[in-house]
Structure formats: C-alpha cells, structure tokens
C-alpha cells in the first residue's frame, strides 16, 4: 500500500493545496493520502488563525470529492510539538508494511534540510514535491538532486496553482473577492462561522449601530460613555496590532453590556451560560458581568464569533494565552479615555509600545487591587500573570 502524508496549517485550505494533493495521488499512485492540519498556537488570534476544529472541518469539506483523501486530526490532538518526524513515525506504526510518501510544496523542499531530524524523515519516506510558483522547477530539481543523496525525492512536472493561505486571508481582511481560490463549501463555511473576520457583501459582519441604541437605553450615561470610549480605544489598538478594527470596536462596545443588570439576573445568566466558571469567580459578584455579557450577546444578538465572545468573557479576569482580540479588549478597558487612576498615562504608553508588558502590568495591577480589598484571585488570573511573566522572560533570552 502507498500512503501519502501531507501536513500544513491549512489556514484555510485552498485550491493550491487540493491541486498538490490530487496531483500526488494521481502521479505517484497513492492509495490513500492523509491531510494533517497543524496545531494553532494559543497566542494567535482567530482573525489570523482559525481554530483547530474549523481548519479540520474545512479540510473535510475541500477533500470530500476525492475518495483517496483522508483528513487526520493526529497533529491537532497530539500533546507534543508537531515535528514531521513524529508524524512520520506515527504513520510507520499505523501502517508497518506500507510505503510512505511525504508531500510538500516547493518552498518546503527548499528549506527541507533545516527541518528537525530531516535525515531520519528521508530514511522513512519518499519526498514528493509539487511546484507552487511558475518557473521554480529548475531550482526544485537542483535541490532534489542534493537531497537525493540521502533519500528518494520525486518532483512533479505539473504546472502550479499559484495561491497561498496568506493571500486568501489578506483578501478576506480587505473585503475583496476570495471565493475563486477556495472550494465553494469552504467559502460558505467561512461565512457561516465568521472566520478571519469575514464580512458579508460589503457589509460589516457585526453592525454596531443598533447595539449602541440598545446600550444607550439600558446603561447609565456614565457606563454608556465608558463603553463608547473602550470601543474607540479597542479600534485604535487593533489598528496598531493588526487585528480587525471593526471587530475590536464591536467587542469593546459590548464588553459591559450586563454590568448594570441586577445581581440575580447576572447570576442566572452565568449559570445558564454553560461556561466553565471557577469558584473564585462564582464568589465575586463583580466578575459575573463578563461571563453573563458573552452569553447574553450570543443568546440575544446571535453573535457566534468565539473570539468576540471570549474577549468579553475574559475581559475582567484575563487568562493565559489570550488571543490578540482578548488582549485588546482587556487593555482597552483599562486605558479608555475617561480613566484617571494614578498610573494611567504609564499604562496607556505601554499599551501602544509593548502589549505583552502592558498585559503583565495589568495582571499585576488587578491582582494587587484584589488583594488590597481582601478578595480571592481567580485561577485564570493567576495563570494569566504567570503566562505573561514567562513570555517576557523568554522574549529576553
Ligand atoms: N499553491 C500551492 N501549490 C502547491 N503546494 C502548496 C500550495 N500552497 C501551499 N502548498 C504546500 O502545502 C503545504 C502546507 O502549506 P500551508 O502552510 O498550509 O499553506 P500556505 O503556504 O498557503 O499558507 C506546504 O508544503 C506548502 O508548500
């Protein structure tokens, strides 16, 4: 049996990926080809990196026409770093008698000898390469010649399908047509789930105008002004840090939507939400509104974007590995225009110069004020503090 292995971020899967897969199946006579999306790092925002389950689902949709293509969640479910050699070893165990083929695009062949334990990979597989760019074949043949001394390399002569996931995401971000690069069901899936901050035909996915009316009618003047300021601050931070500004505006606007609800109503929403809530959050009534707010906008306004929901859910307590949008709402809430606590100017400056340092400072500030009041620290807050402490230490190395 001839088994192919094809890994990538598939963020999202596009026609170039499927072209490579189908070319390899046909040209190299594969019986099965496994497509394996790699794990999302917790620090990447979902505007730039779709969640693991969504990338898996898009791959299933895009490969459904070809019965030789299979989608594997092996790398996503594994608790180890996704090194290709581990995946190859896994397939070797699964199919001890099969001949294994590892598929890569041209860019990957050219950097292949920098991969972790690449020689061992070549002992176990035949490396199959398909061109990505017009005119890259001579370079590929040369590299294949060099690596051919260690292992077996096959280079397809098929013309490339020139497209990259980065280009697709850029088109989506600029609200330009991206549908020609993807399977039609993948396009539909992206729209349905609001992935990569996709918008409707020239429309904002989440329109803030009717939400402003709602907030004005339901919040005190002071809270409404704060919400508007946080929204504006989040938009600015998003522009600075490459997040979708309108999405950040929307999340910032709604972060305190439940803050002025009576305690019993907030608590009822928290209990109904199904979110995992720690004991410390349950014990502290000022922490209920974030959880209640996320659930409320999902239930009442149909907001499905998990990143928006999480940025509201965690805007007071924070957590480890926050997405960029979560960080923006967390910090935006602390440095909005009307804030006037002692070190606010220092915090504002930090927010726009070093987001990780601002996050650490904010966690420390929040924990100190809880301790001063004799409160308890939610576990996710302590984890958040530790996370940014380690992140900054590692950055300095
Ligand atoms: N248009 C394409 N044609 C051929 N191979 C491709 C193409 N796009 C990506 N690949 C290959 O697919 C694998 C996974 O790439 P991935 O990182 O998911 O995509 P992208 O480079 O588009 O972001 C890599 O080996 C890459 O070289």
Automatic annotation (TrEMBL):
It is an enzyme of class 2 (transferase). It comes from the Bacteria. InterPro entries: Cyt_trans-like (IPR004821), HD/PDEase_dom (IPR003607), HD_domain (IPR006674), HDIG_dom (IPR006675), NadD/NMNAT (IPR005248), Rossmann-like_a/b/a_fold (IPR014729), YqeK (IPR005249). Keywords: ATP-binding, Hydrolase, Iron, Metal-binding, NAD, Nucleotide-binding, Nucleotidyltransferase, Pyridine nucleotide biosynthesis, Transferase. One of its GO terms (biological process) is NAD+ biosynthetic process. The keyword Cell membrane does not apply. Pfam families: CTP_transf_like, HD. The keyword NAD applies. It catalyses: P(1),P(4)-bis(5'-adenosyl) tetraphosphate + H2O = 2 ADP + 2 H(+); nicotinate beta-D-ribonucleotide + ATP + H(+) = deamido-NAD(+) + diphosphate. Pathway: Cofactor biosynthesis; NAD(+) biosynthesis; deamido-NAD(+) from nicotinate D-ribonucleotide: step 1/1. Its EC number is 2.7.7.18. HAMAP family: NaMN_adenylyltr (MF_00244). Belongs to the NadD family. Catalyzes the reversible adenylation of nicotinate mononucleotide (NaMN) to nicotinic acid adenine dinucleotide (NaAD). This is Probable nicotinate-nucleotide adenylyltransferase. The gene is nadD.
